[in-house]
Amino acid sequence: MGTTTTEAPKARRALPPLMTLTDTAAERLRAMYAKGDGNKLLRVSVSTKGCSGMSYQMDFVEAAGPGDETVTDKGVTVLVDRKATLFLIGTVMDYEKKAMSAGFTFTNPNEKGRCGCGESFHV
Q1: DSSP state at residue 83
Q2: Mind telling me which PROSITE patterns this protein's record contains (predicted)?
């Protein structure tokens, strides 16, 4: 008569959050949402364009669509296009002010490189 052994299933490693916001990005979005028309939300997606193949795209939308993931961090909600989630897992969104410009930036651990002008990336 044979014996059967069963092993407990291996614990899955926790995935990093889809996207997080720095304090500066959260503060800027709160200010933008307060000034905005109604209850519009920022939607982050990835489009195919630029020298390296992909580019971050941000739009204000009335409500989450059926293909949107909702990310809430530091009390601020951002929508992420479900098609972009695999490219954005673990991304940190920041807001930077420089001498001649200001805007949102993304630190994405999935990026393998960026074009020379920094407008597009590839994974």
Answers
A1: G
A2: HESB (PS01152)
